[in-house]
Amino acid sequence: MSLLEVKNCTIRYQNGTSAVNNVSFSVEKGEIVSLVGESGSGKTTMVRAILGLLPPGGKVTEGEIILDGRNLLSLSEREQEELRGKDIAMIFQDVGASMDPIKLIKSQYVEAIRTHERISREESYDKATDMLKRMHLTDANRVMASYPFELSGGMKQRVGIAMGMTAQPKLLLADEPTSALDVTIQAQVVHELRELRDKYGATIILVTHNMGVASYLSDKIGVMKTSQMVEFGTRDEIIIDPKEQYTKDLIDAVPKMGGNRFAR
Amino acid sequence: MPDNAVLLEIKNVSKEFPVKKKKLYAVSDVSFTLSRGETLGLVGESGCGKSTIAKMIAGSLPVTSGSITLDGVEYTHMKKKEFAKFRRSIQMVFQDPLSSFSPRMRIGTYLCEPRVNYDHVSKDEAMAEAEELLAKVGLPAEFLMRYPHELSGGQLQRVAIARAIAISPKILICDEATGALDVSIQNQIAKLLVELVEENNIGCLFIGHDLALVRSVTQRVAIMYLGRIVEFLDSETLQEEYMHPYTEALLDSIFDVHCDQDEDIKLLAGEAPSPLVVHNGCPFAQRCEYCTEQCRYQLPELSHVNGTHYVACFNPLKR
Fold it and tell me: How far apart are the first and last CA of chain B?
């Protein structure tokens, strides 16, 4: 059985427009699955629905989202809250913006752990530093004693991933986790995500518009266009042997180092 | 090909910002030239000073030292009134098109503004030109009556470019002009820019962080690190001829669509050091795997390799 199954999912906003239209895909345990496509194609809406956090007015009108045998759509608000952070965690594009600017990392991190687990502050602190070290933030104590603004973008992103992974969720949702970062820092974060899966068996759904990152990390890729999933398959099926013209165009459009130049 | 007449010359330009009691060295001793019909790429990570250079060329930021000359006229110390007329020769296109538009101004009015303000042409005349401009950037005339929020990001960026070229500038500066756009749109804008630069024989400074994209629209690329240019390269042969370890790191950080998943990523450890600290040696020394004792206390000068290739490194990669 797949860890996550999305079946014929349609998501509508109040005005009736569908942001996701009849989308189906599945994610096996320990897999990295990427959703790629242009802005507005519905990839972010899709993962937010899995998390149960659609923007106001958004609703899954048809279909099912099944995590480990449980239909997420039939859960009560409370059950959903329990699920979030424990079974499903999310990291956002700009982790800095989701942090409290006037609280130390330490207190935010410990608080996040203690909402899900009944353990002491000291234990939570140790757990947090341990996780930060796994994310290659070697000076974990200094990071814990910093305010968000004192950390660089790459460090904040790693803190965000560490926070998401502390409760060892079954599923990690990553919405454009590297897009706001510089290329060399992006490479570091991509490396951490890869390691999460290879070393710790994490299951990750990655939303990205960067085809290169998707190609490097993914086991499977879903290509979305105007709220539909135009193609879903293994990484090689999508990257090496795409069937749909749209997928081909998308891959061709990516600037490549050895590629054609427009300038003479 | 660009003709050899130098249009823009930047000589030993530095910019320091006072931060509390310290100084932030945003740009240090940068020199380059730009010819007519040439596009020069400026690549580096955030905070390396690329945008500061753009602002200094556009005259919206005074230089701390050094000179900038456009068509033989040094303009860094020009009087305000004089510069108000002069600055039309330098136009900029920014990253986020929507935030550079007034939400309540119609596209037509927006396109007319520069001609009416600088050249005092009548509104009707300017409107007729605006229509031609729209056609030039591949948009229909009915867009004149639209508001910015009715256009997509790519369409808006075309309008921004149309406005920039409306008063025939000599220099066009694109600061991450395609950064916020989807890849397919990004290519269209890149192609458009290349065409316009060729057609109007203007000089273009193309700032970006995507080396592959910058390479595709430029003739030469300058790689920046911590306020200094560390390497000048020919775009065509960039990949074969780079010699600076930082350029190598940038190239290694690109994820190719057809990459090998089993290959380990070559990581550049750490992050760029603070520009608040004065470095005696090479700015890249702390992160460089080829760093020697010399690199730590002596600053490597840009030295000529061949053609348009310059590199600032004591231990350049062997080719």
Answer: 27
Question: What residue in B sits closest to A137 (Cα-Cα)?
Answer: B270
Which of A187, A209, A262 is opposite residue B265, by nearest beta carbon? A187
ipTM above 0.90, yes or no: no
Does domain B6-102+154-311 correspond to CATH entry 3.40.309.10? no
For the segment A62-67, the average pLDDT, to the nearest whole number, is: 94
CATH topology for A1-87+173-257 is: Rossmann fold (3.40.50)
Residue of A nearest to B268 (CA): A184
| A256 contacts on B by Cβ (under 8 Å) | 212, 256-257
d(CA B141, CA B132): 8
pLDDT in tens, A191-240: 989 999 998 899 999 999 899 999 999 999 999 999 999 999 999 999 99
- Residue B276 contacts A, CB cutoff 8 Å: no
Q: Supply the pLDDT for residue B1.
A: 42
Nearest chain A residue (CA) to B215: A261
Could you tell me if B151 and B134 are in contact, meaning their C-beta atoms sit under 8 angstroms apart?
no
What pLDDT, on a 0 to 100 scale, did the predictor assign at position B4?
62
Q: Is B82 exposed, middle or buried (0-12, 13-18, 19+ CB in 10 A)?
A: exposed
Cα A166 versus chain centre, distance: 15
Q: Does A169 touch chain B if contact means CB atoms closer than 8 Å? A: no
Q: Give the domain ranges of chain B.
A: 6-102+154-311
**Separation CA A41–CA A21 (nearest Å):** 10
- Report chain A's mean pLDDT, rounded to a whole number: 91
Chain B contacts of A38, Cβ < 8 Å? Answer: 182-184
Which amino acid is it at B304? Answer: H
CA distance B116 to chain A (A): 32
Nearest to A261 among B45, B183, B235 (CB): B235
Q: Where are the domains of chain A?
A: 1-87+173-257, 96-168
Question: Which helix (H) or strand (E) segment is B105 a member of?
Answer: none
Question: Is 90 exceeded by the pLDDT of residue A116?
Answer: no
pLDDT-derived band of residue A1, with 50, 70 and 90 as boundaries?
confident
